[in-house]
Design goal:
The protein is an alpha/beta fold. Helices cover 15% and strands 13% of the residues. The model has no long low-confidence stretch (mean pLDDT 88). The N and C termini lie far apart (97 Å).
């Protein structure tokens, strides 16, 4: 490789394509639009979903249900799996569950479900517990610690100003 080959084929200031300037330019007569047809006309535009007259995929597939974009992504872990992966006396946190490969991917909250047996005394921290899970943890001598979730955003609340005038009645 030579130094003069490094920038070969790279044109920083390429001149614009001048359409309709005679047959010698290579873009004369039909100006690259071809003969007749919809694309050859002026002001042509298609919808992004247009499939050449076929009923588009977005219209063939039925609309169904509701997808809540603000819903929290809750990951569930069964007590039986927690019992298998941790020793008695361990403190089980969401980070420990990720390290043990019981929780995968992105999540907002971790919920512990009561499926399986637990005989070990574990201190489990999670955002949510099912009723049976908390009962089984307590029966085994462990502790279920509920972690706080994200605080909800308070909307449309007027702030009380310290220097505001008190209400006075006319009289």
């Amino acid at each position: 490789m030579n130094l003069n080959d490094v920038h070969r084929g790279i044109h920083k200031s390429k001149p614009r394509k001048r359409l309709g300037r005679g047959i010698g330019s290579g873009h004369g007569k039909t100006a690259g639009r071809g003969h007749k047809g919809q694309w050859a006309r002026n002001g042509v535009s298609f919808l992004a979903v247009f499939e050449g007259g076929t009923s588009p995929l977005v219209r063939r597939i039925p609309k169904r249900g509701f997808n809540n974009r603000w819903a929290k992504n809750v990951v569930v872990v069964n007590l039986g799996d927690v019992s298998e992966h941790f020793k008695s006396g361990d403190h089980v946190t969401p980070e420990a569950l990720v390290a043990a490969n019981l929780v995968k991917g992105n999540y907002d909250e971790v919920k512990i479900l009561g499926d399986g047996k637990i005989t070990k005394k574990l201190k489990i921290s999670a955002h949510r517990f099912s009723k049976t899970a908390s009962e089984k943890i307590a029966a085994a001598g462990g502790e279920a610690i509920v972690l706080p979730g994200n605080a909800p955003v308070a909307k449309n609340q007027k702030k009380d100003k310290a220097g505001s005038k008190s209400q006075t009645s006319k009289g």
